[in-house]
Amino acid sequence: MKTKYRLLAAMVCALALSLPAKAQHSTPHSQPREGKLAADLSKPFTHFRVGNRNVKSIYSEGTVVWVGTSGGVVRYDTKTEAYKLYDNKNGLLSNGVFWVGRLRGSITVGTYGGGLSVLDEKNETWQTFNVPDGLGDAFVYEVMDTRGGDVWIATWSGANRVRGGDLRDRSKWDLYTVENTKGGLPNDWVYGLAEGKNGEIWLATEGGLARFHKGKWDNWNHAKGQGAPYEKVKNAIAYNSDPSQVSTHHARQKEEMGLQNINVAYNPNYIVAMEVDAQGIVWVGTWGGGLGRFDGKKWKNYTTTEGLHGNHVFMLHIDRQGVLWVGTNNGLGRMLNGRFEKPMTTAQGLYSNTVFSMANADDGSLWIGSYGGVTRLKSPGR
Prior knowledge:
- The chain is mainly β and 382 residues long.
- It has a domain of 113 residues.
- It contains two helices and 28 strands.
- The strands form six sheets. Strands 1, 2, 3, 4, 5, 6, 27 and 28 form an eight-stranded antiparallel β-sheet that branches.
């Protein structure tokens, strides 16, 4: 995400404009499911409170921002200031939203346990695609529409390819897993998708990076260069608690990678975020192993030693100018000319130092998702 490994936040109602964190006295349950806000968007930073929720995904188009949280997805119009919450009370099967965006003209959300849901905005009804329809798993982490016309879906039981993008035709659905790719996909828990400049499909998994191109699979993990070694980052691990201590799945993953004796939050094979830039460079954010850069042949890893602001990288975003933004456990920053600028934190106006999602708006502003709230940055400057 949040972290991005699970959504455990309590579910609460509605979107509410935030006061400064220490002055927060509103009761989320008292907020209506739709209405209008009184937000002052002329300020450099504007905060929006979303209760005890992770904001895993943000999608912006025109004056409208869609905010995907662990308590549903919110549609907010910055022009009219109207908002509406969609959750399991009005059509979704799960309140947990991992991904929100527009697929083939329709707002689509990937959910935590409720499959893939597509909104009919005219009738305000949802159509959900789930395992019986061909979906690999009811937990959907990301969706991607490719230039060639296929749709790819990242799930926690492999990756789907829907040939031609026709979700309603069951015969068009393929599922790729560790088993049927003979290890080409290194792990069935797929967290991210990206398309390379030559049409290759990149997949971020809990066991490393995979590439699918012209029917052939390749993959890379820490043993092949991904993520910084533990000795380099052990003094800069942000979390003493580790998912492997409470999850048999995560424990098994660490054991398979030979990391069972490391009981802090470190697994450089685990890719939490991924982007591919215009030059075809793959950027991956890892769980405690910093930021990885892969040119198709060689890896270069960046940690706090190289100026990265946190070794847990939860979010990567390439803006409309081609600049890479990195959201970590210790704020949000950009990489400019191969160097990391000083990060933004709560001291500069972020809602939280832990950054899970981000979107560019048409008016030049940035929307930044965290646990508990969203920050609108009027203009990032240069």
